[in-house]
Amino acid sequence: MRTLFAFTALAALAFAGAAAADPVTIAPVSFSNEFQQELDRSIGAREGEILRNAVVDSVGRALERRGAALDQTGGVSIEITIVDADPNRPTMQQLRYDPTLDPMRSVSLGGAELVAVIRGGDGRVLSEVRHRRYNHSLEDLVGPPTTWTEARRAISQFATKVADAYAANAS
């Protein structure tokens, strides 16, 4: 009985802490100047939108798991920049520009580098999160990769770090 009471009390405290957290706004994801040039020059604007959506979805889910309430008028804002990203498979634009690439057989090292700045309602920087993850070898790949397999893995790890930083500053 005591165990049930203790568990219920802990759950209530956890819920109360999550409910008291400031609402969070995820600002539109930006690209570093260098990565924007890479998108324009060879990767393709379509791929930038794919990555942007992956970041917003992944960070949003991670924040919600940590008890954050996503809101466009939130007191806490998170500004995210995709510094760089490399695909594991050629993008549509790369295939158009280079006929020697094969959409099924061409595989390369992939990954991403991202930065987030978490700001309080007063604009003060609460935390900064940096994450960089790339394959070191094609042997690192588990199964056949899609275009952004390793970049998505980097984004997922980054999202967890952002949510942890938010939770550390929310209390």
Shape: elongated
Mean pLDDT: 87
Per CATH, the architecture is 3-Layer(aba) Sandwich
**Based on DSSP secondary structure assignment, what is the total number of beta strands?**
6
Helix percent band = 40-55%
CATH fold naming: Rossmann fold
> Would you tell me the structural class of the helices and strands?
alpha/beta
Overall tally of domains: 1
What is the gyration radius calculated from CA atoms?
19 Å
Low-confidence parts: 1-20
Describe the biggest sheet? 6 strands, mixed
CATH level 1 name? Alpha Beta
What is the helix tally?
5
Helix-strand string: HEEHHEEHEEH
Distance between the termini: 30 Å
Descriptive report:
This protein has helices spanning 2-20, 33-43, 45-65, 92-97, 149-170, and strands spanning 23-26, 30-31, 69-70, 76-86, 111-119, 125-134. A hairpin with a 5-residue loop joins strand 5 (111-119) and strand 6 (125-134). The longest helix has 22 residues, at 149-170. It has a single domain (22-170), classed as Rossmann fold, CATH 3.40.50. The protein is an alpha/beta fold and 171 residues long.
Can I get a quick summary?
The protein has 171 residues and is an alpha/beta fold. It contains 5 helices and 6 strands.
Please write out the topology:
Blueprint: H1 2-20, E1 23-26, E2 30-31, H2 33-43, H3 45-65, E3 69-70, E4 76-86, H4 92-97, E5 111-119, E6 125-134, H5 149-170
Helix pairs in contact: 2-3, 3-5
